[in-house]
């Protein structure tokens, strides 16, 4: 399964899922990090042409998506009552 | 307890009072830190705790209410009218019954809560989302810039750890069932991950409870093993307290220790180190990255010297692993301490690297069932160890990305502060520094008031281990920083999860607070007028 080369649509769908999952984190720092890391990770691998490395990167991305999904749930269940100072709207 | 500041300067008996050569000699052989205040060296005779010595005293029966956490249920008042003084054993028994009754009665009124819930949050604030702790009210959780004290656990590390708390909870030393086998496999996989990041063989990695334990085993264990032939240890004055305290312990046992001074930029003089090594030197211990000032020592050079002289080289790499590239073979390291919670792993776990070729022998500090090849007995905590392994693997993958980003953030912080303030001093060398650690001193500002005003930023002044005492940090003292500058030093710790917005907010808050304090400071007014503070003749009132 990991040997299958993903199509452009699949890659874009993975990217969008990662960004959507990143936005669901309740912790400010983790949320920003997940979003930033996903964008930078895709940007870094943009020039990959070799099919096996593309497939490896894609499967790596999918496993990271699974991890992010699980952890978004865990973080939301244990979210502290008070948010970070960066998220509090100051007048 | 005597406040350091209340003692006038002329009465402070310190090494500074001695003649310069005597002072250097004094500092080279005296441990820079005072003994750790927890337990005295000889525990007996120990005073009995209050609940045993005076179980029925009025103070215990009618305690004054705590203003911050008033009790929801008033305590049980128990009046015992006894004509005879109760003997010790009966008093203890009675105290136990009082305690049990006290616990049961509230339990009938309130549902039982778990220890976790009891220990977690402060009491909920009345109106909006405010956090009130220790008399301070802030609108949200502070932004975290104290990465040298500890780091948040990376979600990928937590994901690796959770199965070992939920279903795979076996003891890795159980050889007879699946639970044990899978735990052992996980521990060995983690060992390989830790070994990979330092360039070692997995057989050379031993898991401990943290870098403090690893340092203790390295310093005390090595010297105790070679106690017949080797009686001397060489270390620096800026080491972590656990190394310095272990060296003090060795001094009390009769070993000799040389505490090398450091230059003004925090780096140790390699030639002086080479001179300090004697034929009976058993260990040289120099930390790779300092936790307070972030200075990176020339480990490769020191390792080369130690190899030439045939001395064991130990480095406390707790702040260095995963942040700067470390290779135990290239740097000729014989022993190394690694900490889990400094690299986005869990707290309570660390590792010790012991070289096999040539073999480094240590006397174990933990006696027991012979786990970890007899070096460290005790059940290996599988979830923590798996977390540490995952953290090390992540650190290896992300080191380049993180370093680039953290360096950019450090520049942003430093430029932001120095563009709007003068009199800002960076403690420690700027070139040989780990970029995630920035220790700044602000002139003409009082340190504690600065920290009080920075409540929305979680920073530290001095290391977490010494923040309980009022003494200026021994590391800054070793750098030759003057006392007033040492008191205003702030350590900003930048990490993987820090954002640009947080850095900008921290800069804003720091600059505002420093400006506010300097506005109020008459000393600063005089400096602005051009008066040289050091040459003032103060009038006698």
TrEMBL record, chain A:
Residues 10-66 form the Complex 1 LYR protein domain. It comes from the Eukaryota. Pfam families: Complex1_LYR. GO terms for biological process: iron-sulfur cluster assembly. InterPro entries: Complex1_LYR_dom (IPR008011), Complex1_LYR_LYRM4 (IPR045297). This is Complex 1 LYR protein domain-containing protein. It comes from Colocasia esculenta (Wild taro).
From TrEMBL, chain B:
GO terms for biological process: [2Fe-2S] cluster assembly. Its EC number is 2.8.1.7. Its cofactor is pyridoxal 5'-phosphate. Keywords: Iron, Iron-sulfur, Metal-binding, Pyridoxal phosphate, Transferase. The keyword Phosphoprotein does not apply. Coiled coil: none annotated. One of its GO terms (cellular component) is L-cysteine desulfurase complex. Residues 144-505 form the Aminotransferase class V domain. It holds the Pfam family Aminotran_5. GO terms for molecular function: cysteine desulfurase activity; iron-sulfur cluster binding; metal ion binding; pyridoxal phosphate binding. InterPro entries: Aminotrans_V_dom, Aminotrans_V_PyrdxlP_BS, Cys_deSase_IscS, PyrdxlP-dep_Trfase, PyrdxlP-dep_Trfase_major, PyrdxlP-dep_Trfase_small. Belongs to the class-V pyridoxal-phosphate-dependent aminotransferase family. NifS/IscS subfamily. This is cysteine desulfurase. It comes from Colocasia esculenta. The lineage of its organism: Eukaryota, Viridiplantae, Streptophyta, Embryophyta, Tracheophyta.
């Amino acid at each position: 399964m990991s040997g299958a080369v993903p199509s452009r649509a699949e890659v874009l769908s993975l990217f969008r899922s990662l960004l959507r999952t990143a936005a669901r984190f309740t912790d400010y720092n983790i949320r920003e990090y997940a979003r930033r890391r996903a964008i930078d990770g895709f940007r870094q691998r943009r020039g990959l042409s070799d099919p096996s490395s593309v497939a490896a990167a894609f499967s790596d991305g999918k496993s990271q998506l699974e991890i992010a999904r699980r952890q978004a749930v865990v973080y939301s269940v244990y979210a502290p009552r008070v948010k970070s100072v960066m998220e509090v709207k100051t007048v | 307890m005597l406040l350091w500041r209340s003692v006038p300067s002329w009465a402070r008996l310190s090494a500074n009072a001695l003649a310069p050569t005597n002072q250097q000699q004094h500092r080279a052989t005296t441990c820079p830190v005072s003994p750790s205040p927890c337990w005295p060296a000889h525990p007996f005779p120990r005073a009995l705790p209050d609940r045993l010595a005076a179980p029925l005293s009025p103070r215990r029966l009618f305690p004054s209410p705590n203003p911050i956490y008033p009790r929801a249920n008033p305590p049980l008042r128990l009046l015992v009218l006894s004509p005879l003084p109760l003997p010790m054993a009966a008093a203890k028994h009675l105290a136990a019954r009082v305690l049990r009754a006290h616990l049961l009665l509230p339990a009938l009124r309130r549902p039982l809560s778990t220890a976790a819930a009891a220990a977690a949050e402060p009491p909920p604030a009345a109106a909006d989302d405010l956090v009130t702790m220790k008399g301070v009210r802030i609108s949200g959780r502070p932004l975290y810039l104290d990465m040298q004290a500890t780091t948040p656990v990376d979600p990928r590390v937590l994901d690796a750890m959770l199965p070992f708390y939920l279903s795979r909870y076996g003891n890795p030393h159980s050889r007879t069932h699946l639970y044990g086998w899978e735990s052992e496999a996980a521990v060995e996989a983690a060992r390989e991950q830790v070994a990979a990041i330092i360039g070692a063989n997995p057989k050379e990695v031993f898991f401990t409870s943290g870098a403090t334990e690893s340092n203790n085993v390295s310093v005390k264990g090595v010297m105790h093993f070679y106690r017949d032939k080797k009686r001397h240890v060489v270390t620096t004055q800026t080491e972590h307290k656990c190394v310095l305290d272990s060296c003090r312990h060795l001094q009390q046992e009769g070993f000799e220790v040389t505490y090398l001074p450091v230059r003004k930029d925090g780096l140790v003089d390699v030639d002086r180190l080479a001179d300090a090594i004697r034929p009976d030197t058993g260990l040289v211990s120099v930390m790779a990255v300092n936790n307070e000032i972030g200075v990176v020592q020339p480990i490769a050079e020191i390792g080369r010297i130690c190899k030439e002289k045939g001395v064991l080289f130990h480095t406390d790499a707790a702040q260095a692993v995963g942040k700067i590239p470390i290779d135990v073979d290239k740097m000729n390291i014989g022993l190394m301490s690694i900490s889990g919670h400094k690299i986005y792993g869990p707290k309570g776990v660390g590792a010790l690297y012991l070289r096999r070729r040539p073999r480094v022998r240590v006397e174990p500090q933990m006696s027991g069932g012979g786990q970890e090849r007899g070096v460290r007995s005790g059940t290996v905590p599988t979830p923590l160890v798996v977390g540490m392994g995952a953290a090390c693997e992540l650190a290896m993958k992300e080191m380049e990305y993180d370093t680039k980003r953290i360096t950019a953030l450090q520049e942003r912080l430093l430029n932001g502060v120095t563009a709007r303030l003068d009199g800002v001093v960076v403690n420690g060398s700027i070139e040989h520094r780990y970029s995630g650690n920035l220790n700044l001193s602000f002139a003409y500002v009082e340190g504690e008031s600065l920290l009080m005003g920075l409540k929305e930023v979680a920073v530290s002044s001095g290391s977490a281990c010494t923040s309980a005492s009022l003494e200026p940090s021994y590391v800054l003292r070793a750098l030759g920083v003057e006392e007033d500058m040492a008191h205003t030093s702030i350590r900003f710790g930048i990490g993987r999860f820090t954002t640009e917005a947080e850095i900008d907010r921290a800069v804003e808050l720091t600059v505002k607070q420093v400006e506010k304090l300097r506005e109020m400071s008459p000393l600063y007014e005089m400096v602005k007028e051009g008066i040289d503070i050091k040459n003032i003749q103060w009038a006698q009132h």
